[in-house]
Specification:
This protein has about 240 residues and is an alpha/beta fold. It has 2 domains: about 10-65, Potassium Channel Kv1.1, Chain A; about 65-225, Potassium Channel Kv1.1, Chain A (2-Layer Sandwich). It has 9 helices and 6 strands. The protein has helices spanning about 5-10, 30-40, 40-45, 100-110, 120-135, 135-145, 155-160, 160-170, 175-235; strands at about 20-25, 25-30, 55, 60, 70-75, 95. The strands form 2 sheets. The chain has a 4-stranded mixed beta sheet with strand order 2-1-4-3. A two-stranded parallel ribbon has the order 5-6. The longest helix has about 60 residues, at about 175-235. It starts with a helix and ends with a helix. InterPro entries: BTB/POZ_dom, SKP1/BTB/POZ_sf. It comes from Funneliformis caledonium. This is 17703_t:CDS:1. Pfam families: BTB.
Length: about 240
């Protein structure tokens, strides 16, 4: 019997659940044993008991975005414009990436062996944030493997914020992405040095050619003058 296909059938199952996860007033039906196995956050949560969250043998947990108690950003690059987040020593502890019912469902489905069809950098960063928030190490590594190519699509504005982006990746524990950024910056610097050297070489060549042309032109003038003097003497 294949375990994963059967596990996928349990995602948001209305009949076998023992946990209700609320996001923005909507619910997902989950299983405590799977949540504990996949998430360090839920493992600690259920160890602590939280009997006040139980009713008729089922847990009711609100996992909505903490809109009131945190600085909420919709996309990872929005943090650049948040003055409250720019202290490097702050480590973004008061920042929440905005997520809705749908994207939380994509995140939760990973617990049940479902693939995550998120391909934009904004979505990948949000999933990486959820992986950090709920301590899902395997998902962090998966997002890291996808985001490590982030710099290849950078525009000039993104390059200008490289240091801040690097800090965000450190905060989200995206090790490969950090390495990808550093390698990109190193390659960019090497290309810049190489380009400057090439420009200098061409400039030196042009100056050298210009000097030779001037010398050649001067010699021609002298020869022309000598010829004229000779002609003048001959006439006399």
């Amino acid at each position: 019997m294949e375990v994963i296909p059967n596990l996928k059938r349990l995602f948001n199952d209305h009949y076998t659940y023992d946990v209700v996860l609320r996001i923005d007033g909507k619910c997902y039906f989950a299983h405590s044993i799977i949540l504990k196995y996949q998430s360090g956050y839920f493992l600690e949560y259920f160890k602590e008991g939280h009997d006040d969250k139980r009713k008729n043998g089922k847990y009711y947990i609100d996992c909505s975005c903490l809109m009131k108690s945190c600085i909420v950003v919709k996309n990872w690059y929005d943090i650049f414009n948040k003055e409250d987040c720019k202290d490097e020593n702050d480590r973004f502890h008061n920042v929440e990436f905005y997520y809705d019912y749908e994207i939380f469902g994509k995140f939760l489905s990973y617990f049940y062996g479902c693939p995550i069809y998120m391909r934009t950098n904004e979505q990948l960063f949000t999933i990486a944030y959820l992986a950090k928030k709920f301590k899902v190490t395997g998902l962090t590594k998966m997002m890291d493997g996808l985001l490590k190519y982030l710099p290849t699509a950078w525009q000039q504005n993104d390059i200008d914020y490289w240091k801040f982006t690097l800090n965000i990746c450190k905060w989200l524990e995206l090790d490969q992405t950090q390495l990808g950024i550093m390698n990109y910056l190193k390659m960019r610097e090497e290309n810049k040095v190489g380009l400057n050297n090439e420009k200098k070489r061409r400039r030196d060549e042009e100056e050298s050619e210009s000097s030779l042309t001037s010398l050649s032109s001067g010699s021609s003038s002298e020869n022309s003058s000598s010829d004229e003097d000779s002609d003048s003497l001959a006439e006399n």
